[in-house]
Amino acid sequence: MNTILCPTAKVQNADALRTFRITLDEIKSERTNMKRIICAAIKIMETDQVFYGHRHDQCFNSLNSQLSFNLNRQQIAKLEKIQGFVTGDGEFVDREQAFIIAKECGQIKDLSQTRGSTLYSEDLY
């Protein structure tokens, strides 16, 4: 439903009030059911480990510090890493999937400044 609501509008009768409430409930439901991007992440494909951070450099720092207990730098460098994001339900998504999610729920601050259909943390904050 593409209804635009004005919060200051006065509702004149009971039927209009019921319609107004239903429309508000639908909008609230759509917003709460939307998948949202929560933070940057990097996934190690060999182990399915996911490292979180505000930005991807923080993810790399965390990854390097945690994996360095068991692996040397050359071994860490050889691991297949995917940069992406984590959604509100804990799902890891790559940059392209994240772009679609962020665009659909209005999280991208300025669509004219994006780099194609790939999401970067700078697009969010």
Q: How would you characterize this protein structure?
A:
With 125 residues, the protein is α+β, with helices and mostly antiparallel strands. It is 42% helix and 18% strand. It has 5 helices and 4 strands, in the order αββααββαα. The chain has a 4-stranded antiparallel sheet with strand order 2-1-3-4, covered by helices on one side. A hairpin with a 4-residue loop joins strand 3 (81-87) and strand 4 (92-94). The radius of gyration is 21 Å and the shape is elongated.
Features:
alpha+beta, 125 residues, four-stranded antiparallel sheet, single chain, disordered N terminus, elongated
Q: For the report, how would you describe the main beta sheet?
A: 4 strands, antiparallel
Strand order of the largest sheet: 2-1-3-4
Overall structural domain count: 1
**Uncertain parts:** 1-12
Give the overall shape, derived from the CA principal axes.
elongated
How much of the sequence is in beta strands? 15-25%
Q: What's the mean pLDDT score? A: 81
Topology:
Blueprint: H1 14-33, E1 37-44, E2 49-53, H2 56-67, H3 73-78, E3 81-87, E4 92-94, H4 95-104, H5 121-124
Antiparallel strand pairs: 1-2, 1-3, 3-4
